[in-house]
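Lab notebook: predicted structure, single chain.

Context: the supervisor wants predicted structures on file for every construct in the current expression panel, including those that have not yet been purified. This is the next one on the list. No modifications to the sequence; it matches the entry in the shared construct table.
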Amino acid sequence: MKENIETVRQFYNSAPENEWVRLGDRHPFEFILTTWMMDKYVRPGDSILDIGGGPGRYSIHYAKKGCAVTLADLSEGNVDFARRKAEEENVPLTAYAKNCLELDELGLGRFDHVFLMGPLYHLLEEEERVKAVETAIRHLKPGGKLYVSYILVFGGVLYDMQNGGSVVPDYQNPGLRPAFDAVVTGENFRSTAGFTHSYMWHWRNILPFMERFGLEKLHFFGQEGIMSPAEPQILDRDKAELDQWAELAKQYLEVPELLAFSEHAMYIGRKP
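Prediction complete. Output recorded below exactly as produced.
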């Protein structure tokens, strides 16, 4: 476990600006659609704990809307980046460099909303993933909302569709080939051969995993909507067409048959 955590920490420490840019110019639909869903519940003045919030895209977005936001991330580089961005935007942000599995040590109390939008990408062991969700739920007030993100196994296929020259070496890589097969077999995929150590989920396995935690399911959707396969092409089109695609994506967001069009999925649940 320690070796995996250190590998992930070093990956994000090396270039914290990459995730900030990824959710901005390169892959804006993930951020647009995810915040559209979150805005059904998040209100100015609410308290938010952003666990694994990286360089702070979501934290700062909601701090600017008047929420009291606390960010905790494994990467010291991410936390320093988030603090600088918050200062640039002139918004308050409390931020800690902390492993999500050790979050109880901070004594943070309970929040109206908890975002768990990074840790389940990288925790390779089942007991770690369960502990991460249980820790997030302990930090929720009764009636509070939990937002949990997952990387989908089909996400690697979508990435190779978007990036020419990738699919042949990836498919022939013994460390990555099982991810292609998992789309058919319905298995999750534990990877140490991709961008960093990661855990990718078959979309059919997410709801059964979340059912054990006693939450009321509110939503389950693909965070890129229908956009991911053609996102680079859509981003080259004029604003009217881009806006229309975004509206269609919102309309289709929770259609189960379209979930695999996304690289990431989100579960939103309410704590009793």
